[in-house]
Amino acid sequence: MRAPPKKPNSTRPLLLQNIGQLLTLRSTSGNSGPRRAGDLKQLGIIEDGAILCVGGKIVSVGDTREALRDSWIKKNRSQIVEIDCGGRVVLPGFVDSHTHPAFVSPRLVDFEERTAGATYEEIAEAGGGIRSSVEGVRASNKAQLAGKVLVALQEMMAHGTTTVEAKSGYGLSLDSELKSLEAIQLAAAQWPGTVVPTLLGAHVVPTDFKNQPQKYVDLICEQMIPQASKRKLARFVDVFCDRGAFSEQDTLKIFAAARKNGLAVRAHISQLARTPLAKLLAMNPVSLDHLDHVDETDVSQLAQSSTVATLVPGANYFLGLKHFPPARNLIDAGVAVALATDFNPGSSPIASMPFVLSLASTQMGMSPAEAISAATINAACALQIQEKKGSIEPGKDADIAIYKVRDYREISYWAASNRCELVLAGGMAVTSRQDESRR
Ligand SMILES: [Zn+2]
Q1: How much distance in Å is there from the Cα of 271 to the middle of ligand 1?
Q2: pLDDT value for 436
Q3: What is the distance in A from the centroid of ligand 1 to the CA of 25?
Q4: I need a labelling partner for 112 at 20 to 30 A (CA). Which of 91, 93, 96, 227 fits?
């Protein structure tokens, strides 16, 4: 593959050609919303494809022969930066719509205790879990925390991710939650991809509010949310609504405060125990995530809603669980399913979307094509950015990943191996395996 210049000027047009399989993810039905049921398998593949990008946007998509005959391209060829993809597979950069990168240290004690049989909840009750990441975040300054976030973002991009939703949630005080969001903002400014920030002050009740959990909910509603909104530090408010975290009633209260302050809502739900979805769905969450313990009523209510169901099988894998979210039931019932890493220090230190795709196929019965749609266009819908991200179509951002494979199914087949060769974000070549080998 002919490498592009190290830093092509994004104002220069960029032509990717000789693409073996170009996965456009374009809509076949004119539907701009999430893909459901059979549509999830439609990848809009063009063989021997080409993409023209100008000013960081995708301008045209077609086959290479047509592109090379195009009069505008012929006339401007000397100005165009060309990438010969050598028959490789090209797809939209992955959208990782659920991550927790604002932490300081890995949780190695929890990891080791689980090998001796302790469960996630037992570890949390004994003082491990989410609460054990709080001290490090509270003690670090914004720049230190931003450095940690940036390393995570770079790792994600090396596997083909160009958009990341990043949550706070290990500060659990007004100052430390806002500091976490500022650190995410600072890291985002140094990273060529796109970051969508989320306030997760409602991750767990911190130890200092152990005996007055409602006061902590009030702090979230009356201070964290208004300040995060006023300072434009978050696009979403998230709640961990589950056994041992926040109740359905707390979640509805926090959702109402978020909506009052102009922020959209999402929740972690039914990971450890079932919470009925009806009341939460009435608040129009953009996404409900995990969903390990949904029942048939929940599934049919989700199918009738516009809410995306974001599945994070990396957490089940890393916690050593035998049970995975019921992806097949959800998809077959018509629920809009997305996939994400849930990158976090306790239950999913996984930055690789291709590995999550592999888990989706091996553990949840999703076909490789369904998994790709769930991790691109549907994940973009889970962040309300589908007008710009998640497919390779004219007018969208030139966020593109090139994999050193001949067939798209290899992306999830080569489990735990990184075949991502080059990533473009906003039309700029931002990471490549050649760069990695020089480091
Ligand atoms: Zn999570």
Answers
A1: 10
A2: 47
A3: 26
A4: 96
